[in-house]
Design brief:
The strands form three sheets. A five-stranded mixed β-sheet has the order 5-4-3-6-7. A four-stranded antiparallel β-sheet has the order 8-9-11-10, covered by helices on one side. A two-stranded antiparallel ribbon has the order 1-2. The chain is about 30% helix and about 20% strand. It is an alpha+beta fold. The chain is built from seven helices and eleven strands. The N and C termini lie far apart (about 45 Å). Helix 2 packs across helix 4 (about 75-90). It has helices at about 25-30, 45-55, 55-60, 75-90, 105-110, 150-160, 185-195, and strands spanning about 15, 20-25, 30-35, 65-70, 95-100, 125-130, 135-140, 165, 180, 200, 205-210. The mean pLDDT is about 95. Bound molecules: benzoic acid (BEZ). Benzoic acid binds near residues 40, 43, 44, 45 and 142. The site of benzoic acid has 8 residues, from helix 2.
Length: about 210
């Protein structure tokens, strides 16, 4: 199938996992979701990534995000690998790892890029909102572990900008000033939405304190 694009509904599926069978949409419920693939069990970078994800459980929970990993290994392989992640990363894996040995989910989410590797999944990650829409897609090569602080930063931006007429500048992090969306021009509405005021650096670049702070 064609690759997923932002705004598409994240495909539903039923697949085995380290925590038993999962029906994806039902498992997500009303939460935000992060589905991320890694190339293979028992590999070094993946071990650090899954350890980091486990350690960030509290941060994901604060943002109402459920996390699920995936590789084309079996549930049995995941179960053998998880103690290594726990022991080497000083954590407890507290989220399911999809066992996509039949590549059902990999095909739905276009996770195998044959010109990179014909059998293993790339490091892709999807942020999915409570309406099941895909809101972020990133794909990294096998040799580069992801920055999970960046994933949290994007979730913060999405959750903020969904509820206020703002966008977040480059390198923004929670608490920094944001920009008023260019489509908002009515001075009365601006005054009401941004009582702390704003600075117009140019007519289209209007900085304002983060409105939910
Ligand atoms: C890793 O997770 O360390 C890894 C996986 C596949 C290729 C290279 C590195």
């Amino acid at each position: 199938m064609a690759s997923l694009r932002l705004g598409d509904i994240a495909p539903d599926f039923e697949q085995a996992s380290s925590e038993g069978p999962i029906r994806f949409h039902e498992w997500l419920g009303d939460s935000w979701g992060i589905l991320f693939s890694h190339p293979a069990d028992f590999t070094p970078v993946c071990t650090t990534e899954l350890g980091l994800t486990a350690k960030l459980k509290g941060e994901f929970a604060k943002r109402n995000v459920k996390v699920i990993a995936l590789s084309v290994d079996t549930a049995e392989s995941h179960s053998k690998w998880i103690p290594d992640i726990d022991n080497t990363q000083g954590t407890v894996v507290n989220f399911p790892i999809l066992a996509d040995a039949d590549r059902k989910v990999s095909e739905l989410y276009d996770l195998i890029h044959p010109n990179a590797n014909s059998t293993l999944t790339v490091r892709s990650l999807f942020v999915i909102d409570p309406a099941k829409k895909v809101r972020l897609i990133i794909t990294y090569p096998a040799s580069t572990g992801r920055n999970f602080d960046e994933i949290l930063r994007v979730v913060d931006s999405l959750q903020l900008t969904d509820h206020h007429s703002v966008a977040t500048p480059g390198n923004w992090k929670d608490g920094d000033d944001v920009v008023i969306v260019p489509s908002l021009q009515d001075p009365e509405v601006i005054k009401q939405k941004f009582p702390k005021g704003y600075t117009a650096v140019t007519p289209y670049l209007r900085l304002t304190p983060q409105p939910n702070r």
